[in-house]
Amino acid sequence: MSDILHRIATETASPDGVYQALTTIDGLAGWWTTDTTGKADVGGVIDFQFVPGGFSMKVLELQPGELVRWEVVEGPEEWVGTKVNWTLKQSGDYTVVLFEHLGWKEPVEFMYHCSTKWASYLLSLKSLVETGAGFPSPKDVQISDWH
Amino acid sequence: MSDILHRIATETASPDGVYQALTTIDGLAGWWTTDTTGKADVGGVIDFQFVPGGFSMKVLELQPGELVRWEVVEGPEEWVGTKVNWTLKQSGDYTVVLFEHLGWKEPVEFMYHCSTKWASYLLSLKSLVETGAGFPSPKDVQISDWH
C-alpha cells in the first residue's frame, strides 16, 4: 500500500473556513471543481467532475473543525476503495491541514501525478479560504500532459 | 519506509532543459534556491540553503537526459540518508519528470510538509524550463506556518 501525504496551513483564526470548504457543496466547488454535486452529510455521496473524468466520494465521518473522512466509491480503478482523510488543527494564527489519500495498491505513475495534482488543489483551497477565491477545475493549474 | 512521489511535465521538445536545470548550479539556483553552491558532477556535493535551513546532496548518478540520483548527506535528521531520484522521459511534446524522495523512516508531519513543498518547487522547475523564470527560495510560495 502507498499513500499520498500533504500539509498546508491557512492564515486563519479558526478551522471554520477550511471545514466549510471541505463539507459543503459550495465550498468544495470553490477550490476543487466547479462541477460538484451530491449530498455532503455523513453517508451522502459527493460527485466531482473534471475535464478528464470524475470521482464520487462517500462521506464516512465529520467532526466539525477537526476531521473529514471520505471513501472513493466511483472513479478510476486505482482510486476506488482508497480513502481520503482531512485532519484540521489550529496552531496560533494558522489552521493546519493534514491531508492523506490512503491505500493505493501500487505506486503507479498515475499516483505520482495525483500526488502533485493534490498539492496544487490544496493551494487552491488555501487561496479560497484566505482570499475568497480558489482556482478549481476547469481553471486549475495544468501540471503536465495529463492535465 | 515512506516515499514522496510526484509527476510533472514540461512542454519541451527534449529533456535537455530539465536535465540542465537539475545538473548545473545555475539551473538548480533558478528553481529551488538562489543560494545553491558546490559541485554538480558525480561524487560532488551540492549545498542548498533556505530561510529555515539547508540540505547537502551527494550526486550519485547522472545519465544525460534520463536520470539524476542524489543522496542527502547533510540536513534535517529526517532527510539524512534519504535519496532523491529524478527520472526523465520524452512523451510527444512533453518532457515527463518522475520525482521520488525515498526512504523516510517514518511518515512524520514534516514529511507531509515536504511532500507539498516539493510539489511547489516542481512547479517552479516547470516554470523555469518553460518560461526562463522559476520562483526559487527566497521567492518561493509559502504554503504554511512552516514556510
From TrEMBL, chains A, B:
Belongs to the AHA1 family. Pfam families: AHSA1 (PF08327). It comes from Kribbella qitaiheensis. CDD domains: SRPBCC_CalC_Aha1-like. This is SRPBCC domain-containing protein. InterPro entries: ASHA1/2-like_C, START-like_dom_sf. Residues 13-130 form the Activator of Hsp90 ATPase homologue 1/2-like C-terminal domain.
